[in-house]
Design brief:
The two termini are 18 Å apart. This protein is α/β, with parallel strands linked by helices. It is globular, with a radius of gyration of 18 Å. The strands form 2 sheets. Strands 2-5-1-6-7-8 form a 6-stranded parallel β-sheet, sandwiched between helices. It has a two-stranded antiparallel sheet with strand order 3-4. Helix content is 30%, strand content 22%. The C terminus is likely disordered.
């Protein structure tokens, strides 16, 4: 099964997380089960000294799962970052759509976030022309070969994702079964 996925890309501090948070809320209100992946180019620590799970990892456990009736967390030490496709295939079989923050060099469909007060050049339409760019969410008008969505209208961004990605994936799957 082909899982609908969109990655949001932009320079740090542009507002990707804020936009994604609002888009997730919009999609949830439409009954969509949403998964989210955050790519961190830096080393991060989710476990903290003194916690049992930290103690397990510090003792040498390569993988630790923390589980309760409402939440599950996985801490896995690895030598390299898995691709978003690997993460989606492994952890997101129970959702309708996966939204990704980061992985700007992946081949996944993208929405670039742009602010007039930020970097003037786009990541996907600057020196590199990314064919996976679906749209740009911006707070200023831009002349591009892809739709420009209003960064301050998360409902518009959610509708674009529903129409272009979720419905598009369903249409693609239906046509692959046609004779």
């Amino acid at each position: 099964m082909h899982k609908p996925v969109v990655t949001f890309v932009a320079p740090s501090g542009t507002g990707k997380t804020t936009l994604l948070e609002k888009v997730i809320t919009e999609l949830k209100q439409r009954g969509i089960r949403v998964g989210a992946i955050k790519h961190d180019a830096h080393r991060f620590e989710i476990d903290h000294p003194g916690k049992d799970s930290y103690r397990f990892a510090h003792a040498g456990a390569d993988t630790t799962v923390i589980s309760s009736s409402e939440t599950l967390a996985l801490v896995k030490h690895q030598t390299s970052s898995p691709s978003p496709e690997e993460l989606i295939a492994t952890y997101f079989d129970d959702v309708d759509l996966v939204l990704v923050e980061g992985f700007k060099r992946s081949t996944l469909p993208k929405i670039e976030v742009h602010r007039c007060t930020g970097e003037p050049d786009l990541i996907c339409r600057g020196a590199y022309h990314d064919p996976a760019l679906l749209a740009v969410a911006s707070d200023e008008p831009l002349q591009l070969d892809v739709p420009v969505l209003d960064l301050n209208e998360p409902a518009q961004v959610a509708e674009f994702i529903m129409t272009r990605v979720v419905q598009g994936t369903a249409d693609e799957q239906r046509s692959s079964f046609s004779v």
